[in-house]
Amino acid sequence: MAHAAIERFEALQSAFFAATKRSERAQARFAAMAGLSVEDDPETLVRRTLREREAINAARSKMRAPSSSLRLVYGAALAAARRDGGGLVKLMEALETERKRRGGRRLYAAGSRAALVMLCAGGNFSQTGMYFDILEAIAAPWWRRKAADEETFAALMAATGETPETALERLERADAALNAAGAPKRICNDARFLVAVTDPQIDDFTSAWTALNIAVQQRRGLRQRAGWTSLAMLAAQVEDGSDAGDALLMADEFIGNMRPRVHGMTRGRLAVRLAATMTGLKTPGAAAADYAAILATQAAVIAATSASAAAVVAAT
User: Fold this and answer.
1) DSSP string spanning 114-174?
2) Tens of pLDDT, residues 251-277
3) By C-alpha distance, which of 133, 230, 123 is closest to 183?
4) What are the residue ranges spanned by the domains of the chain?
5) pTM, whole model, 2 decimals?
6) How far is residue 130 from each of residues 119, 136, 158, 191, 298, measured CA to CA in Å?
7) Cβ of 163: how many Cβ atoms within 10 Å?
């Protein structure tokens, strides 16, 4: 018998496939992943997703952010979080107004990623000032800056009531956890923001990280498909690394057997998201904050793969 999360994904995927173009199947699958943790029936979630995407389309031309290849996932994230596309655009405008007032750096994708996370985490327009305070505090030197990751994390922290000081403390604890677990140094700068979202105890993270790395060795290519940073995110989110490893193997097998086929990084990221749902996401803070961070990760994967979306969709 299939896991309940797999059955839920299959139902959502079918609903999104029925309502979108064949060329949008890669985005539709990530949109389905965005709805895994809510109780709306698939048809209702799809209807609300398309409505929020249309609201974004009405306010932003195709040449402006968020990119058209991402708008279905944005709509799904907003629908799942009970927020609206018009609110997203207004918050983007508020962030840009505050940026100009301060004279700071331009935001990644015109602030669409940060606005999405703030909304999905329960944030509002009054927190734009704190957002920039946190962003200034955590910003790395330009030559090693991860702009999208910094801005997403700052948005999440502002929306959940953190301050520049507490945001920095979370990042310091994430660095300590990654170092204690023996994570490759080349990925620590990418993974620190994802780990800091859930702020795990060092012993818990180390145990989960070790168990997940043992699990991915059991299937050829799984570590490469999932990626080090996604494994770190999953280790930070789950209570039991062994259970998460079993779930990841099950999810990867399921995703690998889907038709149309899914390949490479897209297969790995979908499997990680599904495994997180199967094992139960750990939410030491607000549940919305944890969920919003996952949505931001999905959007990042879609952005990275949208240029080769045609290769993702194979013939049945």
Assistant:
1) HHHHHHHTT--GGGHHHHHHHHHHHPPPGGG--HHHHHHHHHHHHHTT--HHHHHHHHHHH
2) 999 999 998 888 887 888 889 889 988
3) 230
4) 4-312
5) 0.90
6) 15, 10, 6, 23, 25
7) 14
